[in-house]
Amino acid sequence: MSIDFVTQIILEYRYWILIPLSLIEGPVVAFIAGTLAAAGYFNMYFLATLFFVRDVGLDGIYYAIGHFGAKTAFVRRMLVKVGITADHLEQVRILWERRPGWTMFIGKLSYGIASAFIVVAGTVKMPLLTFFKYGSIVAVLQYGTLLFAGYYLGASFGGNAAEIINNVQYVVAFAAIVISGYYILSWRMRRKLLKKDEEIEEGPADGERQI
What we know:
Layout: H1 3-13, H2 15-24, H3 26-37, H4 44-68, H5 73-81, H6 89-98, H7 100-108, H8 114-123, H9 128-156, H10 161-166, H11 168-210
């Protein structure tokens, strides 16, 4: 779904389309909605609440899928999506236990496979309180940054709705840069996470050689 199309749809339907769109393209919609909030199209407090509830709510659903459906074909496909086999689950569980905040942060920013990371957290039975604590922190950081970056762009046009609409191509271009940077960052961080997983997996073998 292109950014310019999302922008036009939001401009036309506003609150009516915001919730369903946020379920499809959360980061993109958050940035664009933040831009339009500067022009009075949306209330920033409403946006902050919406995206927080949306993010934490979806996390809870995916966690439940992993927790209660660990042996289902759907969960197995999700594990394969992030390159995890049944033999790796113990290493992943240790990773969630040792670095819950870091793992949650990287996992949720991994565009395209974030839901799979959350399913894995449920599969390895990550403590629910810890899961929601770090999930909430990451949601605030992630969507707070996107909303305020969008708001800053909108304010740079003087918070004028006509200026934002007339210069929507610049809004789209800036959004493309921000979202591209977001995706690149998530890709790099995901590589680091997988590297940490490999280090944990190699640890027992090193210990056995020392013995």
